[in-house]
TrEMBL record:
Name listed for the protein in its UniProt record: MBL fold metallo-hydrolase
InterPro entries the record matches: MBL_superfamily_lactonases, Metallo-B-lactamas, RibonucZ/Hydroxyglut_hydro
CDD domains: OPHC2-like_MBL-fold (cd07720)
Domain Metallo-beta-lactamase: start-end pairs: 52-258
Record flagged with keyword tRNA-binding: no
Length: 279
């Protein structure tokens, strides 16, 4: 089974790397009901709330960028396949020149460090929003919260420490350069420094929409549905609706951290108060 899906954006080669997959339980989702979830799953021809864990490789004349890096060994056999996906794409960790973290949740950055806390990509800088560093870098903020938040903070802190002398902090401006060919789309809410990315070369564009959806069968048709991982559910919903409106309005191809296959590059179209996936 292949773990990669590739397309070109101008002269840039973009590859979705599937780190793994799992299923969510209905209780994780906000502003909905089991009846609505069952109805949306039936409409999508699905029986379970499936999700992927994706990372993104961008190759061009200015270097090799990896956006997010999967969950390493934290989720057991459900994920942790990024090394195999990179090998299938023909890229060694030493060749990656720029890492970009859409945010510092474990399923996006655990693969950036070894179990011992060393940088898994020894020659790469790490770009992320300054707001994300400020939030997760403050251990006192999480004192007494217990798991999983304290563990998530410790992992985020380990990632920040591993790349401490190679951090590139973004200010949170729209279209701020994040890597060669990539500009930031701030999407605060899921986490304070959560962002998407616009990949462009000439007139060609592709959007990496971060974690605006964790379950596309639910949250694309009804953007009001949140997920329990959102730090600020109201802001996350606003970001999701803003991003989906932009994607549909501008007819932009996109992918994301939890977008399903088979090709992992999709378009959305307006459909009533929500959206549908274009055929």
């Amino acid at each position: 089974m292949t773990r990669i899906t590739t397309m070109t954006v101008g002269d840039l080669e973009v590859t979705v790397l599937q780190d793994g997959a799992t299923e969510f339980t209905p209780d994780l989702f906000l502003n909905t009901s089991e009846d609505e979830i069952d109805s949306l799953l039936r409409q999508a021809g699905e029986e379970k709330i499936r999700t992927n864990f994706n990372a993104f490789l961008i190759r061009g004349k200015d270097g090799v960028t990896l956006v997010d890096a999967g969950v390493r060994d934290l989720f057991g056999p459900a994920a942790g396949q990024l090394p195999e996906a990179l090998a299938e794409a023909g890229v060694a960790p030493e060749e990656v020149t720029r890492l970009v973290a859409t945010h510092l949740h474990p399923d996006h950055v655990a693969g950036m460090v070894t179990a011992e806390g060393a940088a898994a990509f020894p020659n790469a800088e790490l770009a992320l929003q300054a707001a994300e560093q400020a939030f997760w870098g403050d251990a006192a903020r999480f004192a007494g919260m217990g798991e999983p938040m304290e563990g998530w903070q410790q992992l985020a802190a380990a990632v920040l420490a591993a790349y401490g002398d190679r951090l590139v902090l973004l200010e949170g401006a729209e279209d701020e350069a994040a890597a060669p060919g990539l500009t930031a789309i701030p999407l605060p809410g899921h986490t304070p420094g959560h962002m998407g990315l616009r990949i462009s070369d000439g007139d060609d564009q592709l959007v990496i929409a971060g974690d605006i959806v964790h379950a596309q069968t639910l949250q694309i048709p009804n953007p009001e549905i949140g997920v329990g991982f959102d730090i600020d559910p109201a802001a996350a919903a606003a970001a999701r609706k803003r991003m989906l409106a932009m994607l549909a309005g501008d007819d932009l191809l996109f992918t994301g951290g939890h977008v399903l296959g088979p090709d992992k590059f999709i378009r959305v179209v307006a459909d009533g108060s929500g959206y549908g996936v274009a055929g």
